Amino acid sequence: MPIITRSYLTAAIVTTIGCSLEIISPHILYLHPKLVLKQYQIWRLITNFLYFRNMDLDFLFHMFFLYRYCKLLEENSFRGRTADFFYMLLFGATVLTTTVLVGGTIPYLSVSFANIFFLSYSLTFMMVYVWCKQNPLIHMSLLGIFTFTAAYLPWILLSFSVLVGGSLWVDLLGMIAGHAYYFLEDVYPKMTGRRPLKTPSFIKNLFAGEPLVVL
């Protein structure tokens, strides 16, 4: 399993199990603007992406998607470019956090955004979205009932989430972050010849000795 996928999956499982066993309190993990800005609890900017709530079927479902699409991206689209993949996740986390913080100050959105304390599901959805945009013609099947191309997967998952009572905004945020990355990394450079999301050199230095695939 590649290093980023392995690290994120392990951190998510350990954090969620720790909260389920009451070893860790979710209250010290969730995103809270005032605690971050006024009490300098900076760790919340990271820990809110690690907790996936209850250990139930929904948790297993999201662990599968996290493992599958994080691994697919890291081993294929970002093969040999671990630093670029890490930067993609960093960009997505920044977009998600900024959107929630800004959206919380906007009328009509503040009520919905006030209930978003963890962005782990949104970051996972972002990875699904980016993979689908990069592989839109791959054929997929839903429960063996009907087939469709990967381009429609985010919308199918969004519809399914709403049908089972999930939050519309959680998945939409992931789509927003994913589309922002896809546009700036894949579309905009082809239009202008400029790449605004070029990975900083200090991040590349962190993964300079990393092999293509870690077994």
Please explain how this structure is put together.
By secondary structure, the protein is mainly alpha-helical. It has one domain (about 55-205). Helices cover about 60% and strands about 5% of the residues. The protein is built from 10 helices and 2 strands. It has helices at about 5-20, 35-40, 45, 55-75, 80-105, 110-115, 120-135, 155-165, 170-190, 200-205; strands spanning about 140, 145-150. Strands 1-2 form a two-stranded antiparallel sheet. A hairpin with a 3-residue loop joins strand 1 (about 140) and strand 2. Helix 5 (about 80-105) packs across helix 7 and helix 7 packs across helix 9 (about 170-190). It is globular, with a radius of gyration of 17 Å. It starts with a helix and ends in a 9-residue tail after the last helix. The model has no long low-confidence stretch (mean pLDDT about 85).
Outline the fold blueprint:
Elements: H1 3-20, H2 33-38, H3 44-47, H4 57-77, H5 82-103, H6 110-113, H7 120-134, E1 139-142, E2 146-149, H8 153-163, H9 168-192, H10 201-206
Antiparallel strand pairs: 1-2
Sum this structure up briefly.
The chain has about 220 residues and is mainly alpha-helical.
Radius of gyration: 17 Å
Q: Percentage of helical residues?
A: 55-70%
* Average pLDDT number: 87
Poorly predicted sequence stretches spanning 5 or more consecutive residues: none
Largest sheet, described in full?
Answer: 2 strands, antiparallel
Roughly what fraction of the amino acids lie in strands? under 5%
Instruction: Please give the domain count.
Output: 1
Order of helices and strands: HHHHHHHEEHHH
The strand count comes to 2
How far apart lie the N and C ends?
6 Å
* Shape label: globular
Please count the helical segments: 10
User: How would you name the oligomeric state of the polypeptide chains in this document?
Assistant: single chain
Strand order of the largest sheet: 1-2
Derived from helix and strand composition plus strand pairing, the structural class reads: mainly alpha
